[in-house]
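Contributing: when you submit paired examples, paste them exactly as shown. First protein:
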Amino acid sequence: MIELETANEVASKKEMEKTNRLAENLKEINDKLTKSKSQKENEIESVKQVVEDAEWDVEDAETHVDELKIEAQASKDRLVFWINSVIFLVFPGLVVKIFKLFDCTYILHNQYLYSDLGIECWTGLHWWYVGIGVISLLIYVVGVPCYTYYSLLIRHDSLFDEDHYDYYSTRRQYGGVFAAYEADYWYWEVIEQIKKVLLTGFLIIVAKGSSVQILVAEVITAIYLLAMVRTVPYHSDADDLLQSIASICLLFTLMIVFALKTDDPDKPQYDKNVMGILLTILSIAVFTSAIMGISILFCPNISKWFHKNGCTCYHAHHITLEEEEEAARKKEEAKEAEESKNDETKK
């Protein structure tokens, strides 16, 4: 009996020890699981932080790329603007130089180049000049107005539409060519260029020094003045007025010069002193118009006076960085929409 009780106690003690070892093992396993879970959670948090940092880096990189694109586009726009400015600035003078290659005058029954009397016209060396002149006429005299018209035509939708994605870029590149005119007369600068060609270059080869030359200039000026008064193309009423005054003064000046040219020197019908005074008055009128134009741009009180009397004055629109970013965003959205449309078409 005693041996049986002792065996039971020994078995019970072994069972207790086994239970304790299992409990310790379970506790150890539980501690390891808890530690492992904590490590996993820490690793997940670290990964999340890395992902968030990467997302921020990607956003910063995209923002930086967008800014670089805007700066690159702005630099390209400024380059195009300055190239156009140089072309238009030297346009009248270069037109005169080109037409002078065809300007010949008679001396003792032979024709000589007026700008260099040592060169006989329509002979060996002059034919080289003629070839250069013809090429220059096609490239510059004809090419610049055609280039201006084509450049504006392909950007017609973005010239005056502020919601267009390419509006600000077009303004920076070609604003000086079309922005001063009404939307319906966006091409008017081409007409101005043609007028300059006719009045500066073409007149050189039209009966030089004769009354016919002056008469042709009067006809050209009168046609332009009629078109100007009929269309009033400028955005600013003040510009329309000042341009009309300048054209009228030019027409009257040509009329006075024509009268003096055709007058009989032996029996003059016009008093040269009176004609001189009239020419002076016309010159002062043109100068005054130019001063008024500058004053309207830079003097707010004069601009207010024009507004008060029903006139509008054009002011250039200065493009801000926010507007550039908005324009770049619209351009990107339009590009994505076009790509999406192309993908759907392919499918």
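Second protein:
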Amino acid sequence: MRVSKHALRQHIFGTEIVMLFLLDVMKASWTLLLQSGIFILFGIIIGGFIKVFLRPATVARHLGKGKVLPVIKAALFGIPIPLCSCGVLPAAAALKKQGANTGATAAFLVATPESGVDSISITLSLLDPIMTVARPLAAFFTAVVTGIAENLFVSENDPNVPRIIDKSCSVDNCCDGNDCPPKDHANHHSLGEKLYAGLRFAFTDLWSDLAGWFLIGLLLGGVITVLVPEELLGHYLGGGLLSMLVMLMLGIPLYICATASTPIAAALILKGVSPGAALVFLLAGPATNITSLSVLVGLLGRKATAIYLISLSVCTVLSGLLLDRVYAGLGISARAAAGQATELVPHWMAVSGAVIILALSLPVVFRRVRSFAARIRSRRTGTGAEAQPPRIIQTREITSSCPAPST
């Protein structure tokens, strides 16, 4: 079959357009990664240390009785912890099982995915100091209002149900902590061992949960930067109640973590979206998604989930409207201020951070792609999990006795 010269030229021209578009997207995504890489490293390291040094039993002791104070404590506990809207669900379920009331659980569910040390650091790198401060403050405000509303309008379950406190060692689960004297249990490991365990958790478990979504967020931010005309978003989402509602409707069903949502919000602001509308997306996107809402019904109940959604929506929109007023009152343009914090970072450090993030992320993405491809092949060939040989996972046994304290 012969191909005409005209059809061949059209094919070549179309291929060139696609390649140029992909190249522009990669360049824009690389710029976002350069601006954020070193800040993400800092954030995930702090997140790893929080996991080791902040034990669930300590948190649960403060979240039981009371309608207001446990809610405030839960919001404060949740803000620095880097978990997404699905990852926070088992943590919240554990807190509720350990005695946290419904309001405190709801506050933790709101504050934790909306903020985190990793997302706060990347907000400073890609946006500006005002948004960096406004994001955790708005998350705290939304979490507290939601939690108090839950405690006021939702009756608690039987208070006589015994609490199950997780006392296991937070470093390596070397014992369950039930038969250990508190002083011995606190000194199972040296400070060096705890720091090493925190770093190991940060660069393996924690980042493997975030890496795929962060790279997707970078690519979407690049696509927005290349494709979307500035006048379009600036005209329709440049501020006001309608802009907030549009971003709220976009964010609620979307599954995206706080870290991944930040480069998207940065790209939107650079295209003319108001900082308040971007804040609504930064809060509503990570806090909810279709999957987590179904789990929330089982965890909190239908009434509590409805209160959760209403409180979250109202507080998020109010926070966005207030933030636009703050920028207008200070006479600051969010577009002009975006990314200025990265000017303080030397270029070699920015490149090093970006390369390290890629080195940590790509193996995670490749493993997940291979796993997904294997599942697709097994479905096509009619073999399922039953046909696969069982995996033997070696884990360290959790004992009830204390190991000797480190010296």
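If you have annotations for the second protein, write them as plain sentences, like these:
Residues 12-159+169-375 form one domain.
The chain has 17 helices and no strands.
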